[in-house]
Amino acid sequence: MGGTAAGPGKGMNAAAQAVAAVVLVGGLGGAAWALGKTGGQTVDRGPATCSDSREDLPAEYVSGARLCEALNRPDLPVLLGTPGERAETASGSGDRATRAGGDRTASSQATVTLKSHSVKVTASYDRLPVAGMAGLLGDTAREQTVLGHPAVLYSDHTIALRINLGGAGGGSGGPGGIARHLLVARDAKDGGGSYELVIWRQDGMVPDEAALLRVAEQVLPTIPGWTSG
Question: How far apart are CA 228 and CA 212, in angstroms?
Fold first, then answer.
């Protein structure tokens, strides 16, 4: 799932690189995500739909587009505890990464952004079991069971990338807020591969752990290939 951001507790080693980092990009104006301008007037386009994406995944893997459909559900704001909001952007993507030895590991992801939160779901088809990952994910990590599947709940820092649009010096980056992660085995027997859900807040405040679990319990069973525990 890519590299990791600097986070609390011990750093991750190579075996834990299946866990995704979250990157927050600020300074571009959140209104541009959901609103367009016509004749000087703001046009309300309604809740975002999943954008088209190009993907390089065989049919047996869930695509980023399908993950986006599962995550971009009408009640997502309610699950997050912000019922007055709606999706402002929604997108998905999928690819296969070539690893040492020539193996190609498939993964796909989708992200839905609201005014107050962003939510990301990733599907990874590596051979890594989730059991035992807590020891690699920092002092906040703890093992639990979600819908009958082994899981690890942990927190990490996001990376805040601020872009200076008005002057010299480009942009700057550094630790952002806290993201809540939930890593869940793809099957109840933990035979390898995982789904990961992440939520973070646009204001940098700590997101609600209960909200993350609510989203997981509703979204995961709707992903193609999910098996009941």
Answer: 19
